[in-house]
Amino acid sequence: MDVRTVGVEEELLLVDPESGEPRALSAAVLARAAQDDAEQDVFEKELHDQMLEFATHPQSDMGALRAEIARCRKEAARHAEGIGCTVAALATSPLPVSPSVGMNRRYQWMADQYGIATREQMVMGCHVHVSVDSDEEGVAVIDRIRPWLSVLAAISANSPFWQGKDSGYHSYRSRVWQRWPSAGPTEIFGSAERYHRRVADMVATGALLDHGMIYFDARLSQRYPTVEIRVADVCLHAHTAALVATLARGLVETAAREWRAGAEPADHSVSLLRLAGWRAARSGLAEELLHPATMRRMPARTVLRALLEHVEEALADTGDLDRVREACAELLRHGTGAQVQRALLERTGSLRDVVTECVRLTQA
């Protein structure tokens, strides 16, 4: 059988290796990366100067994808260390920060249009691209994975702190991200034609600069023949990022099979999906989530088990089932990135020490 390819984009935080404070040095890091290896185009600038993004190549083997994520993180750290900073896979900065928006035309338009929402939007995510055969299949997938995306958000939760304080959330990044006017869950589109018409109508309002500002939880990629799933925090550990990517591929394949079999998507309203996303952001895997089938509260372990059962056949067909089961069990034992960060603060009493240890874990 043809195996879908998966690519991952991760946004990393640039920090001072001693103080843990964010450093606005992305341009210098990118220049250093270009100097070290002119043929590499893995790294890119992001909205804020304290951020650095990389993208993996499409992979069909999830072990190879995990290895590439780890390699890209170490390469990013090497380039950053060359100019006096380092990288941390943190979805928000634990320490206070005054973000600086990049000077290119696009970012300045966003700053002018959205004001403080842009200036405060220094959050680091993980985007997963899964290949699809056509836009029609892609939209059918987007319609059918909607209820399950909040579970991926809970698995990836890695942003408990905001401006030096505990936010009360496991993924505060996702709450900040919702400030964009095009962000969040979508209604059922039903066809590629309706999807593209909705996107065109949104851009035509003038509230968005272009199609790149369609920030749906899952969207058709502009550049690649993929569905791009955008709900995850950047994960503290590379193996958690690989787990999210593997589950995303399982969801896409399962949804495509349902579509081909004539199964209709679950008709949950956007209002309920927003509540499911809020619940995942609030408590991660520590307490309860909304079950994707019923939209009622259930223990996070039960909901995670339901996700595994939902994608079991797809994972078995690609040889990923046992590895994913083990990774989920490990995650429940040791906690998400948010739980690790809070445990570090409890042990050390210092957000600086939290950042220092997360720098190490980013490259572990």
From TrEMBL:
Leading EC class: ligase
Keyword ATP-binding: yes
Gene3D superfamilies: 3.30.590.20
Catalytic reactions on record: L-cysteine + L-glutamate + ATP = gamma-L-glutamyl-L-cysteine + ADP + phosphate + H(+)
Keyword field: ATP-binding, Ligase, Nucleotide-binding
Enzyme Commission number(s) from the entry: 6.3.2.2
Xref: Pfam families: GCS2 (PF04107)
Coiled coil segments of this chain: none
GO molecular function, one term: ligase activity
Keyword Repeat: no
Function: ATP-dependent carboxylate-amine ligase which exhibits weak glutamate--cysteine ligase activity.
Family membership noted in the UniProt record: Belongs to the glutamate--cysteine ligase type 2 family. YbdK subfamily.
Protein name: Putative glutamate--cysteine ligase 2
